[in-house]
Amino acid sequence: MVFEKVAKILAEHKEIEVSEIHPESTLEELGLDSLDTVDLIMQFEDEFNVSLEMDEKIKTVGDIVKLIEDNME
């Protein structure tokens, strides 16, 4: 469920099909720069009601999903 919401938000942000986004998709492959990432982290925080710390280790969509799941109550 978390992945589906993350993929939908990413797809809307980058104007691509949700089907193009996979857990192993890198942020770089999706064309996300640091400004996009900051904007998206804020969206994810609002959508999932969590507080997220951006980390250089976050490279893939799966990493984002794990970060959100780890911070959910």
UniProtKB/TrEMBL annotation:
Lipid biosynthesis as UniProt keyword: yes
Keyword Phosphoprotein attached: yes
GO cellular component: cytosol; membrane
GO MF annotation, one: acyl carrier activity
Residues covered by the Carrier domain: 1-72
Keywords for the protein's UniProt record, in alphabetical order: Cytoplasm, Fatty acid biosynthesis, Fatty acid metabolism, Lipid biosynthesis, Lipid metabolism, Phosphopantetheine, Phosphoprotein
Pathway(s) this gene product operates in, as recorded in its UniProt entry: Lipid metabolism; fatty acid biosynthesis
Localization (cell): Cytoplasm
A single GO BP: lipid A biosynthetic process
Pfam families linked to this entry: PP-binding
Residue numbers of O-(pantetheine 4'-phosphoryl)serine PTMs: S34
Modifications made to the protein after synthesis: 4'-phosphopantetheine is transferred from CoA to a specific serine of apo-ACP by AcpS. This modification is essential for activity because fatty acids are bound in thioester linkage to the sulfhydryl of the prosthetic group.
SUPFAM superfamilies in UniProt: ACP-like
InterPro entries: ACP (IPR003231), ACP-like_sf (IPR036736), PP-bd_ACP (IPR009081), Ppantetheine_attach_site (IPR006162)
Function according to Swiss-Prot or TrEMBL: Carrier of the growing fatty acid chain in fatty acid biosynthesis.
Family: Belongs to the acyl carrier protein (ACP) family.
Protein name, UniProt field: Acyl carrier protein
